[in-house]
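Our collaborator T.R. sent over the components below with a one-line note: 'Predict the complex.' Nothing else. No constraints on interfaces, no templates requested, no preferences about which chain binds where. So this is a plain run: every listed entity goes in together, and whatever single assembly comes back becomes the starting point for the next discussion.
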Amino acid sequence: MCPTIVNNVETLCNVKHIVEMGAEQYTKLGTPNNTGTRLISLSGDVKQPGYFEIETGKVTLGELIYDENFGGGVRDGNGLQAIIPGGSSSKVLRAGETFPIGEDEVDLLDVPYDFDTLMKIGTMSGSGAIIVIDDSRNIVECLANLAEFYAHESCGQCTPCREGSLWMNKALHRMTHGGARTEDAEYLLHIAQNIQGRTVCAFGEACSWPVLSFVNKFKHEFEAKSLNTTDKETASTP
Amino acid sequence: MAEETQTEAPAVVETMVVKVDGREVEVPKLTEDWQGNLVPTTVLQACKHAGNEIPHYCYHPKLPVAGNCRMCLVHVGMPGRLGPDGKPPTNEDGSLKIDPMVLPYERQTPKGVIGCATNLVPGMEIYASSPETKQMREAVLESLLINHPLDCPICDQAGECKLQEYSSEHGQSESSFAEYKVHKPKKVNLGPRIILDAERCVLCTRCIRFSRDIADDDALGIVNRGSYNTISTFLDTPFDNNYTLNTVDLCPVGALTSKDFRFQMRVWFLKETRSLCSSCGTGCNTLIGSRENTMYRYEPRENNAVNGPWMCDSGRLNYKWIGREDRLSEVTGASGWATAIIEISAKLEEAQPGSVAIIGGARQTNEELYLLKKLANKLEAITDSAPRSGQGDNLLCCPDKNPNSAGSRLIGIANEDLGSRFAEIAQGIEAGTITSLIVFGDDVTKHGIDETLLDKLDLLVVSDILPNATTSKAHYLLPGCAHTEKRGTFTSVKGQVQKFMKALDGPGNARPEWEFLHELAENTTGQNGFSTIEGLFNQMAEEVEAFKDKELTWASLGNEGVTVEI
Amino acid sequence: MAKEVQRVKLSLWERLFFPTLINGFKVTLGHFLSFKKSKVYEHKNKTNKFKTTLNYPEELWSVPEGFRGAPYLVNDQDGSTKCVSCQLCEFVCPPKAIRITPPGIDGEDAHREGAEKMPEDFEINMLRCIFCGFCEEVCPEQAIFLAKDYYEGYNEKLMNRDYALTGSNREEMVFHKDKLLERGGTHHDRIKKWEKKTQDAKEQESFPVTMAEKNIND
Ligand code: SF4
Ligand code: SF4
Ligand code: SF4
Ligand code: SF4
Ligand code: SF4
Ligand code: FES
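Returned assembly:
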């Protein structure tokens, strides 16, 4: 068992710049405390998904989605519903949210894409993978998709994540297959709250944060899910 | 060597003060880890000192720490970060400021630490019974139970199951779980002695760590991911080292169960008796589980001077002979105990000095060997014990399969080399100089004194438990008791003098050997003896050098015994 | 702490006692001459007009509602033994009337799939039993009932004698598994816990990694 180094593409990208321009010049890129460049992987409901390299904090979320140089707008002329700003484990942001930054209330789309600001508004820039969700999507189904991934990824070493990740997955699967109940929003929060901060590795947060943020920010959608389901017969019964 | 370390002043144990539930407790700074090295004391250990046991599954004092079950989560308060002056923040009165821990990204939510792997910090406050801690425990138990089969009525662990215990102590009565449970393989044959019920497993990995780090057989592992985690052997390789049954004891739930004990008896009926394993010279401490004169199992009893918390499978399963149908249960050669003892005594009194040989098996207790030695002194008899040897290993198993060879040597029945006088005895019988033979617990025909020689004897007194070639030749057959059916002491190969208690009654008219030996010795030597095992032991301890050195008494042996010089 | 009980003061009339005696005779005589059927066994004895005593055992007393009979084991509707030999009833029984022989590893397979075990023998010493009902209460499997007709499928024919525990010696009064099951009849359990469990397990998505089927019964 030899130690193996796996380098992230972003790291190699940074190394190239630092070697080329020197550390001092490199730190002049970006904004104070958020220096250098970042690789953004833009995906989801945008016209031009792809990889982009930006100067940290010099581009806003709105620009990343709508600017011709980046996403080029939401697909099919749909409206924006939500943004997952830094990989699927970062907390989701709802379109139309505003955040107090400094003196001002800043709209979601005007939030600069850097480390500190995203932290301040309760999420993180994480891996730099931005997922755009348009308003044609059912938000519960989006979360169900994520939960399935996390249930599959949990290694199973520690109890809260091992049991909780599959529990959330099963609950969301049930909700998206006609078995939603009005109390399911609270039910999901109960499961997720008992995972974060109690696990061996950070995967506990990774699998519980999407659930916590989706349910908190789109509570009405989760509660409404029980009302507008038609195919009740496919529901799994308790 | 051992003497010296004992007389030295005990090393000063450095202590520190932490608060558990608001109460200050002084705990040692360092505590022994699973290998006996001194490492910083943990929150879990500090709480134990404070008398507040933190629930735990994966932690075991004799296994490396894994920290994966999260059952031991507790809410704690820590001193703040060092300020610019290099000092931690203080309250107004100058005392250290302690802040209850919170999640860094959600400061209104308390954060727990795992007690089993968190070292104490000076000033630390442990909120072992706070509502926050309670909530964390409830949540972990709820998680463990959502996919648990709740097989209790058919689960051998019920009654000694940590999941049952913690659920009733720390759990909540209801769960919101509304999905299908995960189902995993049941009744899996892990090895020749173990059955796995994967649904019941809480994945604490104790069994894995035991086999890898203690038994040195990296046989178990986890397959599949997440909730589907399952304990497994490598493909079809059986889990069959000689220590597998320890995983059954270690397993906090009914996932690993013993085939030997499967569906035999519910544990709450079992009476526990402190005993010893008699299968080899190591003298592992055991607990006998018995109900109404039937023995159902051996379990290891922790004794760090001897076996730690473990014992080997072969010793553990070697108890079936105790209940065998053909156990010797009646006196033969005389109408009963009273006449037999009187007749034998009379014959021994008439015997010429030197014409008697005594075989005291090294499976007899110290007390019995001592009484035989007394007889031998009076009769100027030649004595010995038969050797038994077998396979040993590096962990517990000893190649000497007699439980009391050391005792036999110390008391003077055998010399260093057990069985070395058998040839001399055989010659004596052949030559007619030895006319009487007393055999306790050995089959002499297997050690050079064959049936034709036995036929030459004027007197053959045999005491044993099971029939063999020697017992069939006995003029007087005195049925004895297994060590589970009497009290007494054994001396282990390393010189640990340990006592065992009586769990069962002997079959029929069988009597503990020391009882009738004491009568025989009294009649023959004319000396008064003790008719209780305590008195007998104390008398022996006065006379046997090695025991005298340590001023042994029955009481001073305690539950774990005392090491003597061998 | 002795409490003093005041004696009721009797009037002269009451102290004479004769009037009370005469009252007593009146009741006896009334019954003796009664043409009414006693309520206790009225429906069993439709033909008899004159009723003073019950011709037991040809005529049977019909037990009133709420009567608790002797404890018997029940089968489920598939005819399988419900008891899984958990021995909780044996533990809880105050006079130690129950004695169960666990099956051990080689025992006969439980009649119900998934239940894994059932008692090899189950004895209730009816001379010891105090009909307290603890066994019924503690049973996690609803396998033992002190019942007259609490449950569906209750077998009137077998059970209507349940107040009459007779035997000519002590051994006969120790009821074994077969007799207990026969008298207990069938219980229509709607839950069928073990069957449901096994069914659930089968319907579930197949277990990710195929473990070699290492069943101990193989
Ligand atoms: S939190 Fe990490 S260690 Fe624990 S089960 Fe999840 S992935 Fe494994
Ligand atoms: S492991 Fe414990 S809780 Fe689980 S079925 Fe067995 S006894 Fe019951
Ligand atoms: S089988 Fe038992 S000891 Fe092994 S991991 Fe599971 S619960 Fe722990
Ligand atoms: S009714 Fe009471 S006394 Fe009779 S068997 Fe049941 S528990 Fe025992
Ligand atoms: S009757 Fe019920 S309580 Fe008694 S052993 Fe059977 S299952 Fe257990
Ligand atoms: S005891 Fe399992 S995590 Fe501490």
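Summary for T.R.: The radius of gyration of chain B is 29 Å.
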